[in-house]
Design goal:
By secondary structure, the chain is mainly beta. It is built from 2 helices and 25 strands. Helix content is 11%, strand content 31%. Strand 24 and strand 25 form a beta hairpin. The termini are far apart. The relative contact order is 0.10.
Length: 212
Amino acid sequence: MRPVVIIGTGGHGREVAEIVQAAAAAGRGGPLIGWLTDDVQQHGQQLSGLPIFGPPAWLSQHPEVSAIIAIGANPVRQRIAARLPSGWHSATAISPHALISPQAQVAAGTMVFPGVVIGPNVRIGAHSIVNVGASISHDSHVGAWCNLNPGARLAGNVQLAEGVNIGMGALVIQGRQIGAWSIVGAGSVVIRDLPERITAVGVPARRIKAQH
């Protein structure tokens, strides 16, 4: 299995590092060997006992290495991926302590945290985050670049377009659809479909502003 580097040295990156290491210890992924960041002041230093090799462009000289973009903000992950070297290999970080149906599909680059439950026929797009204790019920589809924050819940047949951010502890009832790059606030309950590029909060969730 390919060795893995993590792009991003913040708190989210450090959490993902522990997932990668736990998966490797369980024989479910390659070893974590270091970090990449655009912060030149960190280059050549160490984080959690592993070297910070340089910027993401480092991958162009190391095609044998997989990378995972471990940054919480959905648009930032997408922008970083767009400027990575052609042909780079994306790693996936799946905690051994997540419960995932064998009928589910998890695309490359996705980060699945401990305590997550993913049901049958769920599809999760590339470079998404399913954080601690989140759950996705049967037949739901999570697009690329999404983020389900800790404790978020999707009922069955929910459809999230790309870039959707579901806040901590928020709920989406069965069969709802949420448009691309929309944000659902923490603790909100989505009982009707939401269009793209809005922020919705409350119980039930209501639109408060449009995203640009």
